[in-house]
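Lab notebook, bench 4. Still working through the backlog of constructs that have no structural model yet. Next entry is a single chain of 106 residues. Request: give me the structure tokens for it.
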Amino acid sequence: MSGAGSALERARLLVGAADLVVPGATTPGTPFPTALYGVLGVRQVVQGLLAGRVIEHRASAAVDGLHAASMVVVAAVSSRFRSAALVQVGLASAFAVAEAAVARRS
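Model written out:
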């Protein structure tokens, strides 16, 4: 795994761990239910452990793209969860772009 890939996965692990330890830590003031932050945190941790080792960065980028797309739908249909969903769109999009960049360099 490249240095960039390592740094990216460490950042992903931190984001996931933060949401597991303090639900909503990465999106303060947003109204997702606590359990959903747990699910999102587990996804980030598992993906952080697997990306570049078990799954390719390209696949990891696709997972992030799908997550971003699903959150766009949530933002479009739910005024209650819109702000939280848009923060997730931003996080997932940033991770997708970063994973794709690492994949291109690999």
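Notes after review: The chain has a mean pLDDT of 91. The radius of gyration is 13 Å. Flag for follow-up if needed.
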